[in-house]
Amino acid sequence: MQDENHYPFQVKALPYTYDALEPVIDAVTLGFHHDKHYQTYVDNLNKAIAPYLELHKLTVKELLMWVNELPREIQTSVRNNGGGVYNHELYFSSMARKEGQKPKGKLAEAIDRDFGSHEKWKEEMTNAALTQFGSGWAWLVKGHGDNLYLLQSCNQGVPNLKNTIPILLIDVWEHAYYLQYQNRRNEYVNGWFDIIDWNRAETRYMEK
Ligand code: MN
Fold first, then answer.
1. Is the model's pLDDT at 115 over the cut of 50?
2. Where residue 84 falls among pLDDT bands split at 50, 70, 90?
3. CA 13 to centroid of ligand 1, rounded, Å
C-alpha cells in the first residue's frame, strides 16, 4: 500500500461527512475547501518535488522543517504548497461534529494555567484570528516545557516545527468562509470554537 506521508502525496479523506460541521461550516464551503483548495496544494507540492528523487522519502513535516536546506528553486513552492498540505490536514482533522465540547484533561489544565481560563483563551484566540491581516492562520501551539501560546502565520506559513507542536489552528483565508459568511470572519471564528475536536487536540498536547 502506498504511504500517503511521502511523495506522491495524496488528498486525505475528511474524517466526517461534508455536512457534519453544519451549521458552522456548510457542506458547499467545506466541499470546495477540501476538494479544490487542499487538492491544489497537494498537486502543486507533488509537481514541485517530482524531479527531486532524494526528496521523495520525506514527509510534509520534514520538507517544511528542512525547507532552508532544499534546492533554492523549490523553497518557495514547498513553503506555500507544503504548508498548504500540512495546515489543511491538521485543520480538517481538528474539527468534529461535537458541538459545545470543552477542553479536557491535561490540555484543559494547561489552558487554565497559561491563559487563565477556557473563556480567556477563547478571547485571545479570537483576537489572533481576527487580527491576522489578509490570508493566514491563528494557532495554539505547545513549546518547550509544555507551555501553550498563540501564534499567527501569513499565507501557508507554519510555526517552527522543530521546537513547537501545533495543538489547534484556524484557517482565516477567505476561501475558508467567504461562500457562507462573506466578510463576516468574526461569525465563522466564533462558530469554530463549537466544532473543535478536543480529543485530538489533547492527543497532540500529550506528544513529546
Ligand atoms: Mn484553507
1. yes
2. very high
3. 15
Quote the ligand 1 centre to 153 CA distance (angstroms): 13
- Given this model, what pLDDT does residue 1 score? 39
Quote the ligand 1 centre to 33 CA distance (angstroms).
Answer: 6
CA 2 to ligand 1 center in whole angstroms: 25
**C-alpha 105 – ligand 1 centre gap (Å):** 29
For residues 128-156, give the mean pLDDT: 96
What was the pLDDT predicted at 99? 62
Centre of ligand 1 to C-alpha 136, Å, is: 9
Q: What span, in angstroms and rounded, lies between the C-alpha atoms of 202 and 18?
A: 24
Q: 80, exposed or middle or buried, with CB in 10 Å at 0-12, 13-18, 19+?
A: middle
User: Ligand 1 centre and the CA of 12: distance in Å?
Assistant: 14
- Cα–Cα dist 31/58, whole Å: 28
Is residue 84 packed enough to be buried (19+ CB in 10 Å), middle (13-18) or exposed (0-12)?
buried
What are the pLDDT digits (tens) for 132-144? 999 999 999 999 8
